[in-house]
Each structure stands twice: as C-alpha cells, then as structure tokens.
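Supplementary Text 2. Reproducibility record for the structural model of the 132-residue chain.

All settings were left at their defaults, and a single model was retained for analysis rather than an ensemble. We include the record here because the model underlies the residue-level annotations in Supplementary Table 4.
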Amino acid sequence: MTAQIDPAEVEFTAIRAQGPGGQNVNKVSCAVHLRFDIASSSLPEAIRARLLTLSDQRITQNGVIVLKAQQSRSLEQNKADALRRLQEIVDRVAVLPALRRATRPTRSSQRKRLDSKTRSGQTKAMRGKVSE
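Retained model, structure tokens:
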C-alpha cells in the first residue's frame, strides 16, 4: 500500500539556517520547516493510525510531523528534500510487518540442546579440585 502526500496539505516556513556560512547565513532564510498534520491529512486511515503510534521525536504530541531541511543553500531544494524525507516516513509506515507464526522446536533440536547442556555441565564438573 503506497500513499502519496498531497503538497497542499504540507505547510512550509522559511527560516534562517544554522552553522557556518558567514554573513550569508545571517541574512538569507533558505532553510525550511515542514509541518504536516497527520489527523487532517488525506492519507488512508490505517497509515494515519500507524503514523500516530510511531515513536519518533519528529512527531509532536498533537500529531504533527515537523521536519527541518537546511542541507542546501537553495530554498526550493530544501523544500524538495523535506518533502522527500516526509514521503520516506510515510512509505516506511505503509509497509506492514510480516506476522510471526509461532512454531514448536523439533525433537531433534531439543535433543541437541540437551546434549550440549550435558556436555557443558561435564566440562565444568572436570574443573573441580584434584583429589590425591
């Protein structure tokens, strides 16, 4: 199940980037804060529920995903990067984990386990003090 994110549901805010860059960093707002409200999105209900249960520090208690993109010096490239990262989060949640089917150990594997335990116990018993 794949779900595309509607760019109209995403809110972008231009902010000043951090880090080195000299005077340009202090005067140009080229970094981007992306905000995506999970509850009011058009994503399928199953994906929304899994997103809300995700334990990710980028998801607020109100169910809003907040991403910061500041890799590039271009505002448009940072917007594209933030959208790509948001889509990766949604795609990762859209894949259902395989259900684990409980199985019983075979008689042979049980016997091997008990034999190795016996051998280990015998080895440890040999480590005692030598009696004359």
